[in-house]
Design goal:
Blueprint: H1 13-23, E1 39-43, H2 45-51, H3 54-59, E2 63-68, E3 73-77, E4 82-85, E5 91-95, E6 120-125, E7 131-136, E8 141-145, E9 152-153, E10 157-159, H4 164-169, E11 180-187, E12 190-195, E13 200-207, E14 212-220, E15 235-240, H5 250-253, E16 255-260, E17 263-270, E18 278-287, E19 300-305, E20 308-310, E21 313-315, E22 318-323, E23 326-332, H6 341-347, E24 360-367, E25 374-379, E26 382-386, E27 390-396, E28 404-411, E29 419-422, E30 428-431, E31 436-439, E32 442-449, E33 452-460, H7 463-472, H8 476-488, H9 492-497, H10 504-522, H11 529-542, H12 548-560, H13 564-576, H14 585-598, H15 601-610, H16 618-628, H17 631-641, H18 646-657, H19 668-677, H20 690-704, H21 723-731, H22 733-743, H23 759-772, H24 777-791, H25 802-813, H26 821-831, H27 840-850, H28 853-863, H29 866-878, H30 887-901, H31 906-917, H32 919-925, H33 927-937, H34 951-964, H35 969-982, H36 987-994, H37 1001-1012, H38 1016-1025, H39 1029-1040, H40 1046-1060, H41 1063-1066, H42 1080-1096, H43 1103-1115, H44 1127-1138, H45 1141-1146, H46 1148-1189, H47 1212-1227, ...
Parallel strand pairs: 5-9
Antiparallel strand pairs: 1-33, 2-3, 3-4, 4-5, 6-7, 7-8, 8-10, 11-12, 12-13, 13-14, 15-16, 16-17, 17-18, 19-22, 20-21, 22-23, 23-24, 25-26, 26-27, 27-28, 29-30, 31-32, 32-33, 34-35
Length: 1270
């Protein structure tokens, strides 16, 4: 391909095409599988036959509840029995609810009178399958211990229901005779149960010498006093957290999740100080989502999955919760807790108080189409949701927005049983926990149809089940697609569905043998080659070495496929992209023949240049290339396989000598030379192997610089010392010299090896050739470019005289073709770094004439004349030679560099002058950066903006300047003028903050500008600062009369009020001598009201402002110096006198509203005053009482009679009166003592500390102390 610039690197069309193929890699993603089925369902014939047999139904009743463990299936019946089946579906235990050795024919009645064998309503099996617990519809809980060889098993213990009398009078705790809805087993002797009334109880088994007793304690619930179930207290579901395979703090404290109609609560049950004791602690609560509306038939369920460790990665414990169709996932975040947390807690004395609230949070939520009837975790990353219609498997991963993803669903072929518990006449509690269980990735489903019970097991279809099914049906293509999907899919969720590990390495190791086997088996039956090659490409790309087995597969497929065109067309992209690199000799030979016959020369070249052609049929390939004129392919075969680098070059030279070169391929010889001399394999960019790279370069150099050409087999007409090099230079000097320019970078020219060719030798040879032959000025310019670019770069290897360098420089300055201007400029710039010309002044003139701005900038930077650098850059910008895409960044860099490198003196003056002359241009290019630079380096230049006439430029500049901070008076005035024109809404706020810095003549100029621009609000700032309050108010009144927008009217109105209330305006008031005359402040209030009333005829919204004005007048003191404030009355009286009846009618409603408001406030104040006075009176009495109570009485004897006033020797009648008063207080009795006799016992004390019996003071006929006359 032809170069456009001297520095361009040689490229071929083939190399670019191959790069394009590799950048657009072939799509090797597997086709997603269609999930028609997720489970493989099968019945348990032995169990189904047994539970439907007449004998079973007669003895035990209909199956109504099912639970399972790892080795057992337990079926609860309507008569209260539990039948346990083993691994082989045989009956191994019949658990009876009563201590009996025979099964009665009818439900027995106990000695207490209630039916024992009521229907099983809940069931649980311990994790070790040794204990079974059942709950019944009559509140009974039965516990069995399973022992081998004992088919008919009596209960280990019965927890019987209690009565209300037991609960409230005997303080017993337990279930009433109502349905037990759920039972969970923590340990063999620790059971949690809930009932239909909404109570949760904990039963702790205690062993004694003779038996085991269970102590019952209430955990949750508030419905103790109501034996009738209520929807308000309903517990939908509960579940306990099982033990995982890695120790966690939750293992010891017993985690319980309870779902109600309003929330889900997660709490711990056990004490760590004593595991047999309860220690309830709530760790998390979550309300029902707002989008969920619960009704009488709503469903809710929950399920835990324990904390598990797999391949060194610990996954958190998870809780799935659902209300209707809303599924939420909660996680216990173990990462927050320290690794040694459990050990630290165990070492503490008081463990319970040290347990923090566990870090539980909601991590995912998803809404399904139908309500969820049951939730079961299949694994730590997949949860199974059952609805009435289908079973849905969701993949869960805590990764933000898309944490829950549906990966499989299928219709539910079996209708699960439901247990219905009646809450009241309108509400029924329905649960499906009785019929859906999941154990060891198997779903057990109890179904009842027409009184016929079925137990079905659903096994998830695994990946090998899927493959076996497809292969059995001989669906080879589908099987291959499925296996490839399992092997390379990145959809982790779908892979988990098929029981494949999430680890990519483990999964591939597991599936790879099956994939290879299916590849072999499917070849004879395959018709779609594209699918086959896509899979092979993936396998070949992953193998580090050439896999002969895969190569054999391709050959076998070739022999099998009848349509060879489809075969090679499908294979082509994988070959060119380098995905498949090895073919067998048979396929490789067929490929060359096929592409040769079809005339697909370019694809054939790309393929052969990309793949391994060690086994290529060379003779056949050369024939095909010559026949189809595939020069690049032929050269590659010669170079790569035959290791012949001379023949292609001599062929090119022969075509040039004989003028037989195709104009479209005239640059091929130079591309070939460039590739070989830079160590690349032609026509691709792959490097030549090091062992032959040096040989290829040396042979090519020897041909170029050989003196004689006879032995080469070509006749060159050139008579110069280097005829071949001369011929190529005359053929195209630009391409040849550009090729040598690439070669100059090679280390072979560093004289480290034995070679007579060096950089000095090449330049000398070129100078000799150009000196002794007729070359055009353009050719000489090309040589000058070559020398100029390389002289400074390799100055340690090249020596040239100053006269030659001056000649080189002159050639570069005298160029005539604009196409090479950039190359010439770069050459000059490079040359001047290592060479100083004779006449620098003349050089600068020539550079300026030729507009080599970049060279001039480099020269002036070297001389420290940065003002000239800026001048040149501006000239370059004016003439369009600058890079406009980066002109903003360039302006910042240039200006920063000029200011930072220019010192004080004439250079600084010149730089400032230049900026002033081009101020508008610089400010327009990048206003933000320009203002920033001027502010940092030369703030005095800011005032240059005052001379600019373009308003938008001035506004943009000053806007950025005041963001940085500026307090210059002239600039504040100018910016205010700009704001009034471009952004008037910010003018008032700006002047409010900056007016303090305006001074001198600028104040008058600012007032004139604001007045002319009708910016009245802003104008009030300078006017009020000068004490011109009346003028400000007059302007505002005039503006109020013309404003139509309510928002602006409100701003001006508030501003008017702020001025009229300002202390400065009060100081200007002048009182009139007349009694009814208004002062200045009152006059402007009246003017405002008159103005507003005039506007109210056109704008009804003004009434609000009239109301505010009257309120304001009444609330503030208009005349601070007048103690008897009468301003409101004077203003109101003047207003009534000055306005006619028509005007007053217009504001009648407003005046009525004001008077009502005042009347209402007056009444409120009167009532408040009354309440306060009453309160004060009461408080004063209390204070008086406390003052009296706190007196210290020092007088113990009556001043008159001398008898004792108080103490142990007083008259007994005092004690009798005190007792009667206490009885009156306690028994709410009326006082039986005569009031007069009580008064006779009163004591009187005075402040003078004298005391009297009341009767003594009365006998003295005095109300004061007779001693002190007080």
């Amino acid at each position: 391909m032809t170069k456009k610039s001297f520095d361009d690197r040689s490229q071929t069309r083939i190399s670019l095409s191959i790069k394009a193929h590799r950048s657009s890699t072939t799509d090797a993603r597997p086709v997603p599988l269609s999930h028609s089925r997720t489970f493989q369902w099968s019945e348990t014939p032995a169990v189904s036959v047994e539970i439907n047999s007449p004998d079973f139904l007669f003895k035990y009743g209909q199956a109504c509840y099912m639970d399972s463990s790892a080795s057992l299936i337990a079926i609860g019946t309507e008569r209260g029995y539990v039948v346990v089946f083993g691994y082989h579906q045989e009956v191994i235990h019949v658990l009876t609810p009563e201590h009996t050795t025979a099964i009665p024919e009818s439900p027995p009645i106990s000695s207490t009178g209630y039916i024992v064998n009521t229907s099983v309503s809940s069931l649980a099996i311990s994790s070790d399958s040794t204990v079974v617990v059942s709950g019944h519809t009559n509140g009974l809980i039965v516990i069995w211990e399973l022992k081998s060889g004992q088919e008919l098993t009596p209960p280990l213990h019965q927890i019987k229901p209690i009565t209300f009398q037991d609960r409230f009078h005997k303080n017993k705790e337990g279930h009433l005779s109502i349905t037990i809805t759920s039972i969970k087993i923590f340990h063999d002797n620790q059971i949690v149960s809930s009932d239909v009334s909404g109570l949760v109880f904990y039963h702790h088994g205690v062993k004694s010498l003779l038996a085991r007793n269970y102590i019952t304690q209430k955990l949750l619930g508030n419905n103790d006093s109501n034996g009738i179930p209520s929807p308000k207290y309903r517990i939908y579901d509960m579940d306990i957290l099982a033990l995982g395979n890695t120790p966690q703090i939750t293992d010891s404290i017993g985690m319980l999740a309870v779902v109600t109609g309003s929330m889900v609560a997660v709490l711990s049950v056990f004490s760590m100080d004593n595991p047999n004791n309860l220690y309830l602690k709530t760790h998390f609560k979550m309300q029902v989502p707002k989008a969920v509306k619960l009704t009488s038939d709503s469903l809710a369920c929950t399920g835990w999955f324990p904390c598990m460790e797999y391949e060194g990665v610990v996954s958190n414990a998870k809780l799935a919760v659902s209300w209707n169709n809303c599924l939420s996932i909660l996680e216990v975040d173990n990462a927050i807790l320290p690794a040694n947390f459990v050990g630290v807690i165990n070492d503490l004395r008081s463990k319970d108080k040290s347990i923090p609230t566990l870090p539980i949070s909601r991590t995912a939520r998803k809404y399904l189409k139908d309500p969820i009837i049951s939730l079961k975790w299949m694994s730590t990353s997949s949860v199974c949701c059952f609805t009435h219609k289908e079973v849905i498997i969701l993949y869960y991963k805590n990764q933000g927005h898309e944490s829950l993803k549906i990966i499989g669903k299928e219709p539910l072929g079996y209708v699960p049983n439901s247990l219905d518990f009646k809450l009241n006449k309108d509400h029924i509690s329905r649960t499906f926990n009785s019929s859906i269980k999941l154990v060891k990735m198997r779903v057990l489903l109890l179904n009842q149809k027409h009184h016929h019970s079925q137990l079905a097991i659903g096994k998830p279809i695994s990946w090998n089940d899927k493959l076996a099914e497809l292969l059995a049906k001989k669906y080879y293509e589908e099987a291959l697609n499925a296996c490839y999907f399992f092997y390379s899919s990145k959809g982790i969720g779908e892979l988990v569905l098929f029981s494949l590990p999430e680890s990519k390495a483990i999964r591939k190791k597991l599936v790879h043998p099956y994939l290879m086997k299916i590849l072999w088996q499917s070849i004879p039956h395959f018709s779609n080659c594209a699918v086959y090659f896509r899979i092979l490409a993936t396998l070949i790309g992953e193998s580090k070495e050439i896999d002969s087995e895969l190569t054999e597969m391709i050959e076998m497929l070739y022999e099998t496929v009848s349509d060879k065109a489809e075969f090679f067309d499908s294979l082509e992209n994988y070959l060119i992209s380098g995905t498949i690199t090895t073919l067998s000799p048979l396929v490789l030979k067929a490929l060359v023949s096929y592409y040769g016959e079809c005339g697909k020369g370019e694809p054939l070249t790309e393929i052969l240049c990309t793949i391994n052609i060690t086994f290529l049929d060379i003779d056949l390939t050369i024939q095909v290339c010559q026949k189809n004129k595939l020069d690049e392919c032929l050269i590659f075969v010669y170079n790569f396989l035959i290791h012949d680098y001379d023949t292609p070059l001599l062929h090119f030279l022969s075509e040039i000598q004989n003028n037989r070169v195709d104009p479209r391929n005239e640059s091929k010889v130079f591309n070939y030379l460039s590739y070989i001399l830079t160590g690349r394999q032609y026509p691709i960019d792959k490097f030549i192997e090091y062992s032959e790279e040096q040989r290829a370069k040396l042979r090519t150099i020897n041909i170029l610089f050989r003196h004689e050409t006879e032995f080469l087999g070509i006749q060159v007409k050139e008579t110069s010392i280097f005829p071949i090099l001369t011929m190529l230079l005359k053929y195209n000097s630009f391409e040849m010299l550009s090729t040598l320019n690439e070669f100059f970078e090679d280390s072979i020219l560093n004289e480290e090896i034995e070679s007579s060719i060096s950089r000095q030798f090449i330049i000398d040879a070129l100078l000799d050739i150009y000196a002794s032959n007729d070359f055009s000025n353009t050719d000489k310019c090309h040589l000058s470019i070559f020398v100029g670019r390389n002289y400074s770069k390799y100055s340690q290897f090249i020596r040239l005289s100053d006269s030659i360098l001056n000649q080189i420089l002159d050639n570069l300055l005298n160029f005539n073709h604009p196409e090479i201007k950039v190359d010439c400029e770069l050459a000059i710039q490079s040359l001047l770094t290592a060479f100083e010309p004779f006449d620098e002044k003349k050089l600068i003139e020539k550079l300026s004439y030729k507009k080599f701005y970049n060279v001039l900038i480099s020269i002036y930077k070297g001389e420290g004349k940065y003002y000239k650098v800026l001048q040149i850059w501006l000239n370059q910008l004016d003439e369009g030679h600058a890079d406009l895409t980066n002109v903003k960044d360039e302006s910042f860099n240039v200006l920063t560099e000029c200011f930072s490198n220019t010192k004080l003196g004439i250079d600084k003056v010149n730089l400032n002058t230049l900026i002033k002359d081009n101020f508008v241009k610089l400010a327009t290019i990048n206003t933000n950066n320009f203002v920033y630079i001027i502010n940092n380096y030369e703030p005095s230049l800011h005032k240059q903006i005052l001379k600019v006439n373009e308003g938008s430029v001035v506004f943009s500049y000053l806007d950025e300047l005041f963001k940085l901070g500026c307090n210059d008076s002239e600039l504040i005035v100018k910016y205010s003028e700009c704001l009034s024109q471009f952004n008037s809404s910010h003018l008032y706020g700006f002047l409010k903050a900056k007016y303090q810095f305006v001074e001198g003549n600028d104040i008058h100029n600012l007032e004139t500008i604001l007045s002319d621009a009708k910016q009245i609000n802003a104008l009030t700032i300078p006017l009020t600062s000068e004490g011109k309050y009346q003028e400000s108010l007059d302007y505002l009144l005039e503006q109020l009369e013309s404003i139509k927008e309510l928002e602006k009217f409100d701003e001006s109105f508030k501003l008017y009020l702020s001025i009229i209330e300002s202390p400065g305006f009060y100081s200007q008031q002048q009182m009139s001598t007349a009694s009814l005359a208004l002062n200045l402040n009152e006059q402007y209030w009246l003017k405002l009201i008159d103005c507003l009333i005039g506007l109210s005829k056109e704008m009804p919204t003004i009434n609000e402002f009239i109301y505010k004005s009257f309120r304001k007048i009444s609330d503030i003191k208009l005349n601070p110096n007048d103690k008897n404030e009468t301003s409101f009355l004077k203003i109101f009286d003047t207003f009534l006198n000055n306005n006619d009846q028509t005007t007053l009618l217009n504001v009648r409603n407003i005046l009525i509203e004001i008077l009502i408001s005042y009347s209402y406030e007056s009444e409120i104040l009167r009532l408040s005053y009354k309440i306060i006075n009453q309160n004060i009176h009461d408080k004063l009495n209390v204070i008086k009482y406390h003052n009296l109570k706190g007196w210290s009485i020092s007088c113990k004897h009556c001043t008159n009679c001398g008898k004792q006033l108080y103490g142990s020797h007083i008259d007994l009648s005092n004690f009798m009166v005190w007792e009667q008063r206490q009885q009156t207080v306690l028994n709410m009795m009326s006082d039986v003592k005569d009031a007069e006799s009580t008064d006779q016992l009163r004591l009187v004390f005075f402040k003078c500390n004298h005391g009297y019996h009341y009767k003594c003071l009365r006998n003295l006929s005095s109300d004061t102390c007779v001693v002190c006359t007080q």
